[in-house]
Amino acid sequence: MFFDVYCGLHEFEDLAVALRFLQPRDLFIDIGPNVGSYSILGAAAGARCFAIEPIPRTLL
Q1: Angle at the Cα of 32 (from 26 to 35), degrees rounded to 5?
Q2: What would the pLDDT profile of 30-51 be if each residue is shown by its tens digit?
Q3: CA-CA distance, 49 to 29, in Å (whole number)?
Q4: N or C: less crowded end of the chain, CB within 10 Å?
């Protein structure tokens, strides 16, 4: 999809579904967030977010 490549968004459809259903004050837990795209999206939607990265090297 051109939009994905141009804007650098990965998993565009999944991100759109998450944004559609997340409500303010929801609890969103992101396991293995890497750069945290879903966590950022959840926080922007007003959800309480916890990002748990199990790989220490990815944290840095």
Answers
A1: 90
A2: 999 988 889 999 999 999 999 9
A3: 6
A4: C
pLDDT digit string, tens, across residues 12-34: 888 888 889 999 999 999 999 98
Q: What phi and psi values does residue 26 have, to the nearest 5 degrees?
A: -65, 160
Backbone angles phi, psi at 34, to 5 degrees: 55, -110
> Are 25 and 46 in contact, with CB atoms under 8 Å apart?
yes
Instruction: Note the pTM of the prediction, 2 decimals.
Output: 0.73
List the Cα angle 32/34/39 in 5-degree steps.
80
- The DSSP call for residue 25 is T
Measured between alpha carbons, how far apart are the two ends of the chain, in Å? 31
Which residue is it, tokens 């748990």? Answer: 52
